[in-house]
Amino acid sequence: MRLLEAVASREQGAPAKQLAREAGLALPTAYHLLRTLVHEGYLRRDRGLFFLGEAVERLSGSGARQKRRSTMRDTLAHWRDTIDAPVYYAVYREGEIEVMCVADTPANPAVEEWADFRETGHAHALGQCLLAQLDDRSRRDHLDRHPVQPITPYTVRDEDRLLRRLERAGRMEPVIERQEYALGTVCAAIPVTAGSSAAAVAFSLPSHQADRLMPAARKLQSEVGGLLGTLTLSISI
């Protein structure tokens, strides 16, 4: 690790003797470790100088992704506690709905995924919010692959009705869903758009707390607006 740190501090590369001195290692030990690091791809050697290798870049990228995931989990946990409800974060990626993170508690558990979220986007607030952000062609392509079908007695009945609903959805307005995916549960989702990517943050409540739905949605919307940078970064997780 000391050798790697010494190489990282020398953008123009450094010879083995200099690295051994900076790392406080005997030269034979340094030579042995440097050869091993080159063999494993953590360093590369060019004209007697050592530079960071591709394996270090991969390691760094993995660490950055872990940090983004941790930041996202902490953010959702904060919102969960703020509105006292389970919070979900999803993105639309490569033609599919992906739930990236969920924050809930034993007292307020997340909705059970009893029907695949990816295939039932028409029936839950997260999916409707994501579909509303797509262009017409992408939206219809999704529904061709995942047709509208009844999930509960309250689910939108057909594709035409769903498309009309999505067209009426305000660009940055919450999307509300009442018992369309799970009986006894109401949900709201907030759109998050970053460039060409679509994302959404949502929460769920038991249906007997439906009067909390819009006030909590507005509260979450204000929270999302204050931390848009975190969400934008996390789309790339």
From TrEMBL:
GO terms for biological process: negative regulation of DNA-templated transcription. The keyword Ribonucleoprotein does not apply. Keywords: DNA-binding, Transcription, Transcription regulation. Residues 1-54 form the HTH iclR-type domain. Transmembrane segments: none annotated. One of its GO terms (molecular function) is DNA binding. Gene3D superfamilies: 3.30.450.40, Winged helix-like DNA-binding domain superfamily/Winged helix DNA-binding domain. Residues 55-237 form the IclR-ED domain. PANTHER family: HELIX-TURN-HELIX TRANSCRIPTIONAL REGULATOR, ICLR FAMILY, HTH-TYPE TRANSCRIPTIONAL REPRESSOR ALLR. This is Helix-turn-helix domain-containing protein.
